[in-house]
Specification:
binds pyridoxal-5'-phosphate, Aspartate Aminotransferase, domain 1, alpha/beta, three-stranded antiparallel beta sheet, seven-stranded mixed beta sheet
């Protein structure tokens, strides 16, 4: 079989310096996973995952794969995370694809932040609605999009952006949506477990239900598991059950998944100490970096980005730091805009103060590869 066209595409990617590879946890100190609270290491007692429950579900939830545990877990999540209903998807990617591909119809408009996650972009692409981006976190730019918006308008943002780690002006966006009769959808992937009194996320219990049509909670980050739920009204859940293809045409998750999810989310809500330790590390890192001349993206979340001098410098720096025992990852353009190629550093509750201090010091030794503030 002639697969030279595949080889050629791979060669081109490598030539552009954009070759991707799988990577395991690595031997160094974890400054790259999204396991903010260290919950990925915890698992329920084996007896609670009784094999009699079965690990397979056999079919889509709309054929015969539905079971009481799925519905009970959704109801439990809705109750604890302040929504009237919740709907499970096998991953955050699927949740966004499933939500955005069907929510707005032909003639409607999505207005989305230019730095929105790829899973949302792909959902928008599958939808029949118009979609326009607005400048990152820029309320005025969003307001100006009123001139192109048609039909029902859906504003799409993240509460903590996955690359920059910053938060949009949430209250002002809610107010704008309220004033203009727009719907708001917030992806809480990097806020869950990290922000909110008990880690419920930025949008929890804010009294924004009149504009907040949906919130997406993903469980692969701070919850240390996988999967996601779309939170909203029972009508939204019913609508998605009718129209969301990644939900309808896929095999249901197993009972073991729901038992594990509930276990992890209970730990997440109780992880007060871990959240304190996480933010101590975030503060120490920012304080340490401001004493260097290196350019750090403004963020108060555990996602911190150190700007590098282009893709090659970012990759080189990640390699050097890895050789020195720090697991960090380069983020290249076009994943991030040209000129903002970076090392993305994720702080965790389980990183020690010594490790954070050592990382800052290691970074300052490679100044030549980074931008100066
Ligand atoms: C903002 C955001 N939304 C959705 C996703 C996708 O979630 P998952 O990894 O569960 O597919 C990610 C993952 O990186 C993300 O950062």
């Amino acid at each position: 079989m002639d697969v030279s066209f595949l080889q050629e595409a791979i060669r081109q990617r490598a030539m552009q310096g954009l070759f991707r590879t799988f990577a395991g946890p690595g031997k160094g100190i974890d400054f790259c996973s999204n396991d903010y609270l260290g919950l990925s290491q915890l698992q329920p007692e084996p007896q609670s995952l009784n094999p009699i429950l079965g690990l397979g579900s056999g079919a889509s939830r709309l054929i015969s794969g539905n079971h009481a545990l799925a519905e009970e877990t959704e109801a439990w999540v809705a109750e604890h995370f302040g929504a009237d209903s919740a709907l499970w998807y096998g991953s955050g990617y699927l949740a966004n694809l499933g939500l955005f591909s069907c929510l707005a119809s032909r003639g409607d408009t999505y207005l989305y932040d230019e730095f929105i996650h790829a899973s949302i972009r792909d959902g928008l692409r599958l939808s029949q609605a118009h979609a326009y981006s607005f400048r990152h976190n820029d309320l005025e730019a969003l307001r100006q999009k009123a001139s192109v918006a048609r039909g029902r308008v859906f504003v799409v943002i993240e509460s903590v952006y996955s690359m920059d780690g910053d938060t949009p002006p949430l209250e002002a966006i809610v107010k704008l949506c309220r004033d203009l009769g727009w719907y708001l959808i917030v992806d809480e992937a990097h806020s869950l477990g990290v922000f909110g009194n008990r880690g419920e996320g930025h949008t929890f219990s804010q009294g924004w239900d009149d504009v907040l049509l949906a919130r997406v909670l993903t469980f692969g980050k701070a919850a240390g598991f996988h999967g996601a739920m779309v939170l909203g009204s029972p009508v939204l859940k019913e609508y998605l059950t009718q129209f969301s293809r990644p939900l309808i045409y896929t095999t249901a998750s197993s009972r073991a998944d729901f038992i594990t999810l509930r276990f992890k989310l209970e730990k997440l809500l109780m992880a007060e100490e871990a959240r304190l330790s996480l933010f101590r590390n975030v503060e120490q890192f920012i304080r340490g970096m401001t004493q260097t001349s290196l350019a750090l993206m403004p963020s108060v979340s555990p996602i911190q980005s150190v700007l590098c001098d282009g893709n090659d410098a970012a990759v080189r720096l990640a390699e050097l730091l890895s050789a020195e025992g720090f697991e960090v990852r380069a983020v290249r353009s076009p994943t991030v805009p040209k000129g903002t190629e970076r090392i993305r550093i994720i702080l965790h509750s389980f990183n020690t103060q010594e490790q954070v201090g050592a990382l800052v010091s290691a970074l300052s030794h490679h100044e030549a590869l980074m931008k100066i503030s």
